[in-house]
């Protein structure tokens, strides 16, 4: 998800839906190829990948075809903005979109590291977790190490900004990053609830789905 007004999702059959911003009639189907994962940004950019690991960029705001296939192979994808698109391939290799279709045969830049899920924000913040549920923050824009290990155990993660990092652990418990590495033993705040996947917007909006596919929007920051 990108923001309070740009929320997208995929159901168990791969059908794509966009939130209507109206709880009385919340979802509109977006025609096109079935997808298995989707990422949306606050600026309206939307990308997805399907069960065959093919990659698509949403073009429905520009033409009637809805989706343009982009060369590559990804199982997870995340979108912080039009110029900040990241993904993970079936082997766990990490890729960042080159921001150019000029070389359609290879529009992705490999970033050293291995992850199973990834989240990217418009401000350039990127976090990920690997198959062992270890958590990492991308530091490749500052040092050669690329990734800094952060204490915790997550199977799913998403990032809306540097201060909006959320994840779900292997038991589906929900956690929000405390914005501080000064307490490295426990930099996470548990949020009551149970989710298997989670999405965070640049404005701090949080949505998630549980193991049964039920959809939830976080309201814990609103007056009781």
From TrEMBL:
Keywords associated with the record: Lectin
Molecular function per GO: carbohydrate binding
This protein's record includes keyword Cytoplasm: no
Domain of life, per lineage: Bacteria
SUPFAM superfamilies (UniProt xref): Fucose-specific lectin (SSF89372)
Xref: SMART domains: TECPR
Family (UniProt): Belongs to the tectonin family.
Protein name: Beta-propeller repeat TECPR
């Amino acid at each position: 998800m990108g923001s309070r007004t740009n929320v997208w999702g995929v159901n168990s059959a791969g059908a794509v839906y966009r939130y209507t911003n109206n709880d009385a009639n919340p979802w509109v189907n977006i025609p096109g190829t079935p997808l298995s994962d989707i990422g949306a940004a606050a600026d309206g950019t939307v990308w997805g990948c399907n069960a065959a690991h093919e990659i698509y960029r949403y073009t429905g705001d520009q033409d009637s075809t809805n989706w343009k296939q982009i060369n590559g192979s990804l199982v997870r994808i995340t979108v912080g903005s039009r110029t900040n698109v990241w993904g993970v391939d079936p082997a766990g290799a990490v890729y960042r979109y080159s921001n150019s279709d000029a070389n359609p045969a290879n529009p992705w830049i490999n970033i050293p590291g291995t992850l199973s899920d990834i989240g990217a924000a418009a401000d350039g913040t990127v976090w990920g977790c690997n198959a062992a549920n270890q958590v990492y923050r991308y530091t490749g824009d500052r040092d050669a190490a690329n990734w800094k290990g952060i204490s915790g155990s997550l199977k799913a993660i998403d990032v809306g900004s540097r201060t909006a990092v959320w994840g779900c652990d292997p038991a589906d418990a929900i956690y929000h990053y405390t914005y501080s590495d000064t307490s490295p033993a426990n930099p996470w705040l548990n949020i009551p609830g149970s989710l298997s996947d989670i999405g965070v917007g640049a404005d701090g909006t949080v949505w998630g789905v549980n193991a049964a596919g039920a959809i939830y929007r976080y309201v814990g920051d609103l007056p009781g």
